[in-house]
Amino acid sequence: MKTFGLIVPKGTGRVFDGHVKALLDGNDDLARIILPLLDAWRDIRRRAAELDRQLLAMARQSQAVKRLMTIPGIGTITAVSYVAAIEDPDHFRTSRSVGAWLGLTTRRYQSGEVDYDGHISHRGDNRLRGLLYEAATVLLTTTGARAECRLKAWGLKLRERLGFKRAAVAVAGKLAVIMHSMLKTEEVFNVSAGATA
Predict the structure, then answer these.
(1) Which of 62, 147, 150, 172 is most deeply packed, by most CB within 10 A?
(2) What's the CA gap between 23 and 42, in Å, rounded?
(3) Pick from 82, 80, 81, 78: which is nearest to 99 by CA?
(4) For residues 128 and 82, is the Cβ–Cβ distance under 8 A?
(5) How far apart (Å, rounded) are the C-alpha atoms in residues 106 and 74?
(6) pLDDT one-digit tens code per residue, 94-141
(7) To 5 degrees, how large is the angle CA 194–CA 184–CA 69?
(8) Helix (H) or strand (E) holding 150
């Protein structure tokens, strides 16, 4: 529509739909092209909303997902993705190995006299690693009584020393370990301890 000089004002859902139809009023040639696209856009939004409802219903039935959602910053999608990726917590001998499996541990570079830790390895499930990073970001930036825990305090101290991105990666790695421990022990998140109860 922009090509034809029609700028659609900002809006979502029905507001956007109304703006598009108002701009197309009296322009039948363009309406024949745009209205089917608008119908397809509405159908995609409707289907996405239905998938969201199904995901929430599935999350309500799973004790493991509900348990993981007691952690501040962990929502439905992150919890469901984590449970689906881990499958069986007994596949990992220790909870710490989950961080390495997801690529949230630093690579070590050693050559002759040189020995230093580099960036994270980026191995494993890229999407889950991104969701955990997002959850860590939410935990570190959210204020309120529900978000206060030792894990957040630890992450904020790291942020002062290392910067926000590195602190968020460290908290994401810690979240992966804590979540595995919670799945294994079937205990809920203990806010005062910053780990499982």
Answers:
(1) 172
(2) 18
(3) 82
(4) yes
(5) 23
(6) 888 888 888 887 766 667 776 656 667 667 778 999 999 999 999 999
(7) 50
(8) helix 150-162
Grouping H, G, I as helix, E, B as strand and the rest as coil, residue 108 is: strand
pTM passes above 0.90: no
Q: Are 64 and 78 in contact (CB under 8 A)?
A: no
- pLDDT single digits (tens) 40-78: 999 999 999 999 999 889 888 999 999 999 898 899 999
Q: Closest by alpha carbon to 146, among 186, 182, 189?
A: 189
Is the distance from CB of 132 to CB of 73 less than 8 angstroms?
A: no
State the CB neighbour count (10 A cutoff) for residue 66: 14
CA dist 150 and 178 (Å) reads: 12
Q: Could you tell me the two tokens for 174? A: 């810690």
Instruction: Report how far residue 41's alpha carbon sits from residue 158's, in angstroms, rounded to the nearest whole number.
Output: 43
Helix or strand or coil: residue 117? strand
Q: How many helices (H) and strands (E) does the chain have?
A: 8, 4
Paired tokens of 112: 């002759």
